């Protein structure tokens, strides 16, 4: 069993990259990343996602404003990953014009599309890291889903799920600690978290943030979770936007 290989090294050395050089990805690099996305496991082999390469400077700038991070306009390339049942609807209509497409509007098929996106994004980022590139997965596109739907002319039965900013790292951040395995890995049933282990991890993460290169701050695991919840925003326009695209109808 090969327990010391390059794939494991790449996975276990993952860190989000938010500081990029000005170098853009080549067409060859973009194609390699898309091909890796294509080889991802997907639900029922239906490949229920699409990828938009965003290259228009105005759209990239606006995405930077929406996401509040300005990674889309500073990265070497930006991908927008779309949950896509629209393509399957068109394929079915082509062969069976009178077919009932109710299933494509269901929560089941929406989640299948979202899962297909999630897996494809992870494969794309892993491939990028294996090539010496780096990136950040961006759920912050949810800050204004309606505008993104309009900006990219997304038809019914599609929805923007994740952005992925990829580029050449200008700097390499420290490896961020993760919670202990026993807090996420159980046997034969769910187990309540051990608060003593959590408190110990809080101290570990606090030390990481206090000593992190570039952006030191005084926080920990609990404070990260609470600061997110305490905002009280919850992106309340997200569910209406999903439904407006024809999903979650049954």
Helices, strands, pairings?
Blueprint: H1 6-12, H2 27-38, E1 49-54, H3 57-67, E2 77-84, H4 86-95, H5 107-130, E3 134-138, H6 145-151, E4 158-167, H7 195-211, H8 221-230, H9 238-244
Antiparallel strand pairs: 1-2, 2-4, 3-4
User: Helix and strand succession?
Assistant: HHEHEHHEHEHHH
Number of E-type strands = 4
**Which strand order do you get reading across the main beta sheet?**
1-2-4-3
- The overall average pLDDT, rounded, is 95
State the share of residues found in helices, binned by percent: 40-55%
The shape, in one word, is globular
Cα end-to-end separation: 46 Å
**Class by alpha and beta content:** alpha+beta
Structure description:
This protein is α+β, with helices and mostly antiparallel strands. The protein is 42% helix and 12% strand. It has nine helices and four strands; from the N terminus they run ααβαβααβαβααα. It has helices at residues 6-12, 27-38, 57-67, 86-95, 107-130, 145-151, 195-211, 221-230, 238-244, and strands at residues 49-54, 77-84, 134-138, 158-167. It has a four-stranded antiparallel β-sheet with strand order 1-2-4-3, with helices on both faces. It starts with 5 loop residues before the first helix and ends in a 6-residue tail after the last helix.
């Amino acid at each position: 069993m090969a327990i010391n290989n390059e794939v494991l090294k790449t996975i276990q050395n993952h860190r989000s990259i938010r500081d990029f050089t000005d170098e853009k990805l080549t067409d060859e690099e973009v194609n390699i990343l898309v091909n890796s996305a294509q080889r991802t496991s997907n639900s029922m082999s239906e490949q229920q996602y699409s990828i938009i390469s965003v290259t228009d400077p105005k759209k990239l700038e606006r995405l930077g404003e929406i996401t509040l991070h300005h990674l889309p306009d500073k990265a070497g390339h930006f991908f927008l990953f779309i949950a896509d049942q629209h393509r399957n609807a068109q394929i079915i209509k082509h062969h069976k014009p009178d077919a009932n497409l109710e299933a494509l509007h269901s929560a089941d098929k929406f989640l299948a599309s979202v899962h297909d996106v999630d897996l494809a994004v992870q494969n794309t980022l892993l491939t990028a890291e294996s090539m010496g590139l780096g990136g950040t997965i961006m759920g912050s596109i949810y800050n204004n889903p309606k505008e993104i739907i309009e900006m990219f002319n997304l038809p019914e039965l599609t929805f923007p799920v994740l952005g992925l900013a990829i580029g050449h790292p200008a700097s390499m951040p420290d490896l961020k600690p993760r919670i202990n395995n026993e807090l996420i890995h159980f046997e034969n049933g769910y187990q309540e978290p051990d608060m003593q282990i959590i408190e110990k991890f809080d101290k570990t993460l606090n030390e990481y943030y206090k000593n992190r290169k570039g952006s030191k701050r005084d926080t920990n695991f609990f404070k990260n979770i609470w600061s997110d919840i305490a905002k009280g925003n919850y992106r309340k326009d997200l569910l209406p936007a999903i439904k407006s695209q024809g999903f979650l109808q049954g």
